Amino acid sequence: MCNRPVTILFWNVRGLGHHDKCDEVKRVLSSISPSIVCLQESKLEHVTYFKGLSFLPTRLQSFLFLPSLGASGGIVTAGDSSDFSLSSSSQGAFSLTTIFSSTTSDLALTVTNVYGPCDGHRKVEFLSELSDVAASISGPWATIGDFNFLRVPGDNSNASFDQHNACLFNSWIDDAGLIEIPLLDRLYTWTNNQSPQPLLASIGPWSTPGGTRHSRTQSCGRFLIQPLTTSQSFCRLPPLPLGHPFSALTTIGFSFPPSNL
């Protein structure tokens, strides 16, 4: 693992209840080979070992999950067992925090996989939960997932923007000492048939295997980290081709400084 970046893939899969969807998710994960996978909106109340086999490659069978509430939410976090062991974890109402320990060094990385509430009345509760998580963590920490928050008006393709909620979210990011890694070169499947280029370059739009188009106007998928040192480097891996049936996912690769490996 020391000779290559740690890659983290996060993906709002919008449900893992259908066999065809699970097969395609597994195929994509196998082709990308990430070190850590964070899935949101699984819509699964329980994930058995055999259910995990339906959408996770064999090397990602070390996984944890946060149950959905009926058909809403649900989180799955998995790691490549050849790179990491899952040392410990904790659950909240909106988050699943996992400590990944390297199998080849003394590196430990904490990853919090989140799926934020759409209900505006629970957003303060969500940020309070994440503040408690932040206070309990020492060392490298990445907070990843679908926060269901906007930071700036440009995160939205229409005029709808809640300044109050944006201020709450931005204040929490500052207070937690986090920085957001820009998700560049994001080409996804929804163009609204208005131009050859996507109308939105965000985590929001997606397409199902049968070609049915869907859309969300909010760009809520985010990758937030605690800065380690100025020598830390980050890279955006190439996106899936425009029009790929599951291109609404993001993979981030990053390298720790040599002293951390």
Description:
- It is a single chain.
- The protein has one domain: Endonuclease/exonuclease/phosphatase (Deoxyribonuclease I, Chain A).
- The strands form two sheets. The protein has a six-stranded mixed beta sheet with strand order 3-4-2-1-12-11, with no helix packed on it.
- The relative contact order is 0.15.
- Helices cover 18% and strands 26% of the residues.
- It has helices spanning 19-32, 49-55, 123-135, 163-175, and strands at 6-12, 36-40, 62-66, 75-79, 84-91, 95-102, 108-115, 141-146, 179-180, 221-225, 233-236, 250-255.
- Helix 3 packs parallel to helix 4 (163-175).
- The protein has four helices and twelve strands.
- It is of the alpha+beta class and 261 residues long.
- The radius of gyration is 17 Å and the shape is globular.
Give the topology:
Layout: E1 6-12, H1 19-32, E2 36-40, H2 49-55, E3 62-66, E4 75-79, E5 84-91, E6 95-102, E7 108-115, H3 123-135, E8 141-146, H4 163-175, E9 179-180, E10 221-225, E11 233-236, E12 250-255
Helix pairs in contact: 3-4
The biggest sheet amounts to:
6 strands, mixed
User: Which class best fits the helix and strand makeup?
Assistant: alpha+beta
Q: CATH homologous superfamily? A: Endonuclease/exonuclease/phosphatase
Q: Return Rg in Å.
A: 17 Å
CATH architecture: 4-Layer Sandwich
Share of helical residues: 10-25%
Q: In DSSP terms, counting alpha (H) and pi (I) runs of 4 or more, how many helices?
A: 4
Oligomer: single chain
* CATH level 3 topology: Deoxyribonuclease I, Chain A
**CATH class (first level) name:** Alpha Beta
Strand order of the largest sheet: 3-4-2-1-12-11
* Beta-strand residue percentage: 25-35%
Mean pLDDT: 74
Quote the distance from N terminus to C terminus: 9 Å
DSSP strand tally: 12
Shape: globular
Which runs of at least 5 residues are low in confidence (pLDDT < 50)? 185-219, 228-249, 253-261
SSE order: EHEHEEEEEHEHEEEE
Q: How many separate domains make up the residues?
A: 1
